[in-house]
Amino acid sequence: MSENDDVRSWCGPIQQMAEAERRALIEFMTAGEQPRVAVAEALRNNWLEIWYQPKIDFKRKCLAGAEALARIHHPQLGVLLPGSFLPDVDEDGLAELAHHALVATLRDWTVFDEAGFNLQLAINVPLAVVLRMPIAALIEQYRPQSERWPGLLLEVSEDQIDIELAHEAVAQLRGSGVAIAIDDFGAGYSSLSGLRKLPFAELKIDRSLVRDCAVDAGNAAICQTAIDLAHRFGAAAVAEGIEKQTDLAALIAMGCDCGQGILIAPPMPTDRFLALLRQRLDKSRAPARPAAANVEQVA
After folding, report:
1. 3-state secondary structure of 242
2. Could you read off the pLDDT of 55-100 as tens digits, one per residue?
3. Strand 258-259 to strand 178-185: parallel, antiparallel, or no bridges (unpaired)?
4. What span, in angstroms and rounded, lies between the C-alpha atoms of 9 and 134?
5. Which residues, in sequence order, are bridge partners of residue 178?
6. Rounded to whole angstroms, how far apart are CA atoms 21 and 230?
7. Which of 131, 181, 133 is nearest to 158 (CA)?
8. What is the pTM of this model?
9. How many CB atoms lie within 10 A of CB 91?
10. Can you say whether the dihedral through the CA atoms of 151, 155, 160, 163 is positive or negative?
C-alpha cells in the first residue's frame, strides 16, 4: 500500500494526523477531475468496495450510525471517489451499483452486530433508481434476521425529490424497515409545502452550508433554519462535511442532533471501520480519566 493509500484509508480523528497528511486527505476528499472507471468494469473485476463514514450523536456523544459510500479500489489507480465512476453511468449502471451496495450494506450490518455493535446504516440511492428496483423484495431477501436490526436509512438528495414519485417510493417501501433521509438539504430548492407531505426521518444539511457556519452569518442562518425545520417535522437534523472544530461547536450550539465529516472521521473500509468500533469499545471500558471534551471523545 502506498503512502497515498494510507492517507485515503485513515480511520482516526483528523487531529491525530500530521499536517501534510491532513492536507493530502482534504485534497483527496475534495478533488475535482479524476481518472474515469466504468461501474460495470469495477463490478466485473470486484473492485467496488463499500466504505463507512461514522455519524455521531452530539447530545449523547456516541456513535449514531454510519453512511455507506461506494469506492473503487483500482489495482493501478488506487482508491477512487464517486467522481471517477458516477458522472458517466446510466440508469442501468446505477441500478447495478445500488443493488451491490444495498446487499453489501445489509450483510455488513450482521458483521457489525455479531461484533457487538447495533448501528443504523444509511445508503444513498437516486429516487429514479429506487422506483425501478425491487428494493422491498431485496430487503426482504437479504435483511438481517435479528430482532435488533434498526432498519435502513435510504438517503435521497433534495434536488432529486419529486413529491409524487417520493410518495410512490415510500408506499413501495412501507413495512420493509426503510426510513427516508433527505440528503444535501439546502443545495436544491425544494418546496417546503412538499416536504411537509413527505415522511422523513432525517434532514441532512449540505456541506456547502455547514462549511464556515461558525463565521458566515448566511450559512449559520440557513443551518439554524434547517435544524428547526427538521425538529418541527419530528426528524433529526444531521450536518454533513464537518471539517472544522469551530463549525462543530456552532452546530452543537444550534441544536443539531448529529453530524459526520472528516473532522470526526473520514470514510473508511469495512475492516478499518470495525477496528475503529472495537477500539472505541475498548476505550469506553478503560478506567475513566479527566480530559477536556473534544471531537475525539465524541467519535
Report:
1. coil
2. 999 999 989 999 999 999 999 988 888 888 888 888 889 999 999 9
3. unpaired
4. 33
5. 152
6. 36
7. 181
8. 0.83
9. 11
10. positive
